Amino acid sequence: MSTLIDILSSAGLWAAILRIATPLIFGTLGALLSERAGVLNLGIEGVMTFGAMIGWLAVYNGADLWTGVLVAACAGALFGTLHAGLTVTLGLSQHVCGLGVTLFASSFSYYVFRLAVPVAGTPPTITPFQPLDIPVLSALPFLGQAVFTQTAPTYLAIAVALVMAYVIFRTPIGLAVRMAGENPHAAEAQGVNPMKVRYGAVIVGSALMAVGGAFLTLSAFNSFFPTMVQGRGWICIALVVFSSWRPGRALFGALLFAFFDAFQLRLQTVVEGVPYQIFLMTPYILSIAALAIMARRARVPQALMQPYRRGER
Amino acid sequence: MRFERREQRSLLLLVGAPLAAIVVALALSGILIAIAGAPVLEAYRRILIGAFGSRLSATETLTRATPLMLTGLAAAVAFRARLWNIGAEGQFYFGALAVAAFGSHLLSGLPGPILIPVLLVIGALAGMVLILIPLWLRLRFSVDEVVTSLLMNFIAVLVVSMLIDGVLKDPLAFGWPQSQSVVDHAMLPKLVPRSRLHIGLGIAVVLAFVVAFIQSRTVFGLQSRAAGLNPQGAVFAGVPLGRTLFKVACLSGGLAGLAGAIEVMGVRGYVTTDLSPGFGYSGIVVAMLANLNPVGVIFTALFTAIMFVGADGMSRSLGIPTYIADVTVALSLLTMVVALFFTQYRVRR
Question: For residue A284, which of A100, A129, B151, B228 is within the disulfide window of CB 3.0 to 4.6 Å?
């Protein structure tokens, strides 16, 4: 019991939560935006992998860190355009195309990485984002250590969540996105082109996913290796359902998830006799549990996964 | 520009479109090979040599195609019923693990002719068990099975990792986490002596025809297709949706589990966490390339195996990363879905 309290009261745990949550926040928001407009984007796992690779590669080749993030976002947007082209213009199965984009984007990133960086004993590294030193706040006892020692992209992730919550529920653009995802025919009748809205949402969403991947190589670690995304994309898709397609709850869900993940990492070091794989399983089991609890309660966008073809019902 | 449904489809289109898709995918990969600074045609020639150039490489290609046929069938039967089983990778590992567990100790006393079929059934059952979790979640809580079956893959590999580092660990493997080997008489007979090719290939081909027969000639086949085409309509027509999906899931998970069992009993003899280079995921592509046709899966699995085995050889001689095979296969999935779209629709200005 006292070890539990020790873990919970260490500032390191709370700092780790924000760090673990950051790529999930970006990824979940990206998937959420695209699903709000009616397009499931299972390309997320591959797009995150590609963002992690290309962002790292840009910085490795001399670009500064924010340029790396931007490069990742642009690459993500390109994959988003591909996914939108297949699922919106052609109206193909969103499941199949998403998986295709994931397989393509991840194998393409390994290919590019291998070409650019020859096999070496130790993977080459970059200097990642450093924790921001915020005047006054970072010096606070405990709170300074726990919350205000993050790198800049973490604060950006939280800001994006708040902005997206505002945009989706309080602006005409958000209304158009929701209409495209709820009832594209009605949107069309109101003079909103659901195809264009879906394109926009998928492209911006994919850019966010790629930024989430880039956080892994530019802030959380300092190198790229294949399979480093480790199913985070799929976890994001589960978190979207958990959040009931609301950005504020997505932020909360990602933090809650990160709490469990950070907690199990620390528990691993103190609990003996339990195979470490049991701990590694918990994120995936938690995601499945979250889906099972929330799937019936969540309000699914009514036109999710339904292609829109003008003049066809 | 808009799309209009084709009233009739010419044979040329039906045959030509898939071929065009493969050609386009190969051309796009060719661009990537050219960017890497290698001669493109030479690279493809070396891929063919790598896949068929010698007796050894040809048997190796067929050996690699075997699990792909089975995981491809697993995806094809599930997708036909719109059951999105993306968990073939995990089911493959469960099948492999079950065979390693039962074939090394528990049942090793049985004589070969009995042991081999028993182990194959056990492997298939292990795959079924794993898919029933996402299916149950879908039927009970309406959870989309795509994400749950995907997440199950990660859990399954961790279970394998735990057991081959624990109760199933081979004490003679120098501390390396690998399972104990199945007994010699549990290994599948070789198809070609002094190669790795085993009778699993025959099993996979026969099963492809069996699945084709089930889908086109049985009530269950009709029901599973109806469940995929229009679930509400199917229920209205008296198809028991839950029961049909349960059977489809068992067939799909069983095929994927069988793939794992056959890979252990045919090639490796034991299980490690790198037993599958993504056979489960490649199976999805194999199924889609075949447009979910079970007999077509035989050929698309062969195509995929050629790319993977051939790329290994090409990579050694030209220095192109072997990942080009994964890229080509993924690209061909995307070009294929587009090609199949244009067999159904035409462009109107």
Answer: B151
Cβ–Cβ below 8 Å for A238 and B151: yes
Number of A to B CB contacts under 8 A, please give it: 125
CA dihedral for B259, B261, B266, B269, sign (positive or negative): positive
Residues in A touching B153 (Cβ below 8 Å): 231
Compare all CA atoms of chain A with the CA of B286 and give the residue at the minimum distance. A100
Of B129, B88, B123, B89, the C-alpha closest to B103 is: B123
B245 touching A (Cβ < 8 Å): no
Among B153, B155, B341, beta carbon nearest to A285:
B155
- Here the tokens at position A50 are 């590609």
Domain span including residue B120: 67-280
What is the residue-wise DSSP string for B139-205? Answer: HHH---HHHHHHHHHHHHHHHHHHHHTTTTB-TTSTT---BPPPPGGGSPPBSSTTSS-BTHHHHHH
In the predicted model, is pLDDT for residue B295 greater than 60? yes
Comparing C-alpha atoms, which of A21, A80, A17 is closest to residue A239?
A21
Residue B47 near residue B306 (C-beta atoms within 8 A): yes
The answer to whether residue B28 is domain-embedded is no
Nearest-CA residue of chain A relative to B152?
A: A284
Q: What is the pLDDT of residues A149-165, one digit of tens each?
A: 889 999 999 999 999 99
Q: Which of B29, B158, B167, B324 to mutate to test the interface with A (most CBs of A within 10 A)?
A: B158
B34 touches chain A (CB under 8 A): no
Tell me which chain B residues have a C-beta less than 8 angstroms from the C-beta of A42.
Answer: 146
Instruction: Examine residue B92 and state whether it is found in any structural domain, yes or no.
Output: yes
Q: Give this prediction's pTM.
A: 0.94
Instruction: Give residue A313's pLDDT band: very low, low, confident or very high (50, 70, 90).
Output: low
Q: Given a cut of 90, is residue A240 above it in pLDDT?
A: yes
Residue reference for tokens 């195979």 = A275
C-alpha count within 13 angstroms, C-beta hemisphere, residue A99: 24
* Contact check, Cβ <8 Å, B143/A295: yes
Q: Name the residue facing B151 among A103, A114, A234 (closest C-beta).
A: A234
User: Which of B150, B338, B345 is the best mutation test for A, with the most CBs of A within 10 A?
Assistant: B150
Across the interface, of B36, B151, B159, the residue whose CB is closest to A288 is B151
Name which of A91, A107, A115 is nearest B330 (Cβ-Cβ).
A107
Task: State both tokens at B82.
Answer: 């719109």
pLDDT more than 70, % of chain A? 98
The greatest distance separating any two alpha carbons of chain A, rounded to the nearest whole angstrom, comes to 65
| Alpha-helical regions (H) of chain A | 2-8, 11-36, 44-60, 65-84, 94-116, 143-146, 152-170, 172-182, 184-189, 194-215, 232-242, 247-270, 276-294
Instruction: Report the top-level CATH class of A10-116+135-294.
Output: mainly alpha
What's the pLDDT tens digit per position in A250-286? 999 999 999 999 988 888 888 888 888 999 999 899 9
Structural domain boundaries in chain A: 10-116+135-294
DSSP B106: I
For chain B, how many structural domains are there in total? 1
* Chain A CB within 8 Å of residue B144 CB: yes
- Dist CA B55 CA A128 (whole Å): 50
CB contacts, 8 Å: A231 with chain B: 150-151, 153-154
As a whole number of angstroms, the distance between CA B110 and CA A129 comes to 61
